[in-house]
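Question thread 4412

I'm putting together a teaching handout and wanted feedback from people who do this every day. The idea is simple: show students a protein as raw sequence, then show them the structure tokens that encode its fold, then repeat with a second protein so they can compare. Below is the first pair exactly as I plan to print it.
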Amino acid sequence: MGASAIHSAEDARRLARRRLPWMVFDYIDGAAGAEMGAGRNRSALDAMILRPRILRDVSERSLASSLFDRPAKRPFGIAPMGMCNLSAPGADLMLARVAARHEVPLGVSTVASTAMEDLIVEAEGHAWFQLYFSGDGSGTFKLVDRAKAAGYETLVLTVDVPEVGRRPRELRHGFKMPFKMGPKQVMDFALHPRWSLPVLLKGKPEMANFRMDGYDFDRTESRAKATWETLARLRDQWTGNLVVKGVLDADDAQRLKSAGVDAIQVSSHGARQLESAPAPITVLPEIRKAVGPDFSLFYDSGLRSGEDVLKALANGADFAFFGRILQFAIAAEGEAGLEQLWSVLSEEMSIAMAQLGVTSLDEVRRNA
């Protein structure tokens, strides 16, 4: 079938579902609770309309953008995702190469399955390190120092995980990090040899950023001790760009701006945390109003197409990030699948811009 079978994000998801073990697919695809929040995200995006305009010369269109005064070839990047190598061996590096080619940020998760040092090199510097505050914070700030030493210029503090959300699909399969193998998992893997055999050859994915002295990471460890004082300490320690991710409240956004962060990422963690959280796209305009027109505002959660990105830009975002659909493309057809989906997303966006009668992203924002 090949990568040419991927014509949309849903195609990538459908193929990934066929090829991944059930445990792995449900870890990537799942959301909190009964997954009503994920449905709310999608419904809100689907309900938003973009108004076509006609008889304008749109023969030359640009998807070029910028972030922190650096050019980007697309207005969308790669959200930080944990354990991407579960989708296929080497997935982290595939994502890094896309980031390098298109000069967009690769979000490197605290729980990435490839070391942060290797990823920033492969991404040719186009990498941001995503940070979870955990436990008493001692290990967290060691990771900050390590990111600085590796050459990271942008740090993304994720604040919407004081406790890891309950995701029943994960729990039913006994999903844990690091992997715990039992009879159910062995059977699951045996029934999906296209995934299992390459993984066996490469070795099971591990959380690569914790191969360091004095830090044993526990994914389920409480992150509830993080406070505004924690943020102030991080702001003092980190001299580069500081992004705070997981914001859904305008008052919080105003306070973050006053605290000196450089950007805010409006996000519900892909609906993987609080099932009853609002759809992020619905609070994006309110947060834009709260922080003003010139403050950097990013968006993720629920995006499935290039047209979705235009909706985020039209509602106040400067830049957007795709997540799990990129893993689905890799699971479906490896690096070729990822490249195909990236091209699909770009083409979807460019064609939609033509329909809207705009040739640049600035026009999308101005016409919102």
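The second pair follows. I'd like the answer to focus on this one:
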Amino acid sequence: MQETSDIHQPALEESIGSVIREIRLKEGLTIAQVAELAGLSRGMLSKIETGSTMAGLDTLARIARALGVSMSVLFSKYDTSAASAQHVKNGAGMEVVRRGTKSGHTYHLLAYGQGPVKSFEPFLITMEDDTQTYPTFQHPGTEFLYMLEGVLEYRCGQQSYMLEPGDALSFNGEIPHGPGELAQTPIKFLSIIVYPHSGE
């Protein structure tokens, strides 16, 4: 039986770095120009491009903005087709800061989509702070919530739902939705967004 362990699967940081370099060269930008636009040192951007360091999500977001692309494009070459499954250990999900969210509201992305079209995004959301007003979200596809801990009022259109551990809620993502009152913290729930296939 043939050994397959010697096949090199590029690490996530290598994959992201090569995409950043490719886009930068395609746009005719120098490392210095992109670094300045992203508020980074040239040395740091160079390390990210070569895959010798893994940038945090905030840094990747700034680089994506500097290149004029969405952040998901930076992950487009990360291919896990060599593996049949993607295993993200407890606490190892990438922390994502969504528009309008601040401290006390943490999103951890539990799987990374492959290819240019995302089919779904699973998040583990933790909320501990009730001092801020949470924004309203709208996006394509269907969203499914599953409560793990705490009690949360969740707004969906004109309706409000009080979610307790074990409760599930699913809805059309185009309907304005978002957290309301944090009735009992800490709150932890899964949010899975399933995107429509292109052409639908």
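Top answer:
Good format. For the second protein you could add a caption like this: The chain has five helices and seven strands. The chain has two domains: 12-74, 94-194.
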